[in-house]
Amino acid sequence: MKYSVIIRDPAGSGKSTIARKLAKKLHGYHIPFDKVMKGYRLDTIEGNRIKVSKFIQGNKIVIQNVRKEIDKGRILIFDGCFYYKSQLNHLIKNLPSKCFVFSLKAPLNECVKRDENRKTRIGKNNMKAVYELVSKFNFGIVIDTIGKTEEETLLEIVSHLPEN
Which of 69, 82, 115, 136 is the most buried (most CB within 10 A)? Predict the structure, then answer.
């Protein structure tokens, strides 16, 4: 495998759209981490958040499920909220190649606005809760998406990656 890319930050920041486009551009393999968490029912909230152990379990499932893609040497493109540094560090440590992490930034009001246009809305209160958790820390290269087109954001990410 050449490398992996992780695109993180709150719902509505544009990470899934950018990740899909990046995977297409790089002929990579897209892994929507939040959908994996939901599909394996690991996204259950205990107290006021999902426990880090559930995210680590999700990492293990994802790595096992993409083993064929890793063996083919494909670039993996992950997208997810990634609430915890320890989860990110665990995922990076368990990938067999260099990993580039990008934190996409958009203000809460923009994320809420984008959520209103989704088929499956998260809702303002949930958006705020996720935004606060994810925005507690930056990780990797920070990219402000405000005022940028999807193509401009994509090009900025690609500018930080090795040439294929």
Answer: 82
Length in residues, the chain: 164
**pLDDT given for residue 115 in this prediction:** 73
Q: Which two tokens stand for residue 75?
A: 């670039």
Residues of the chain with pLDDT under 50: none
Q: Within 10 Å of residue 47's Cβ, how many Cβ atoms?
A: 6
Q: What is d(CA 91, CA 60) in angstroms, rounded to the nearest whole number?
A: 8
Of 69, 85, 111, 81, which Cα lies nearest the Cα of 8?
Answer: 81
List C-alpha distances in Å: 117 to 7, 52, 86, 147.
21, 30, 32, 18
Q: In this structure, what token pair is assigned to residue 153?
A: 């954001």
Q: With DSSP H G I counted as helix, E B as strand and the rest as coil, what are the percentages for the chain, rounded to 5? A: 45, 15, 40
Reported as half-sphere exposure (CB side, CA atoms, 13 A), residue 100 has a value of 21
Q: Which two tokens stand for residue 17?
A: 């759209």
Residue with tokens 């050449």: 2
Which residue has tokens 């499920």?
Answer: 65
Q: State the pLDDT at residue 1.
A: 58
Q: What is the pLDDT of residue 164?
A: 65
Helix 85-93 vs helix 52-65: crossing angle, to nearest 10:
20
Cβ burial of 27 (10 Å; 0-12, 13-18, 19+) is exposed
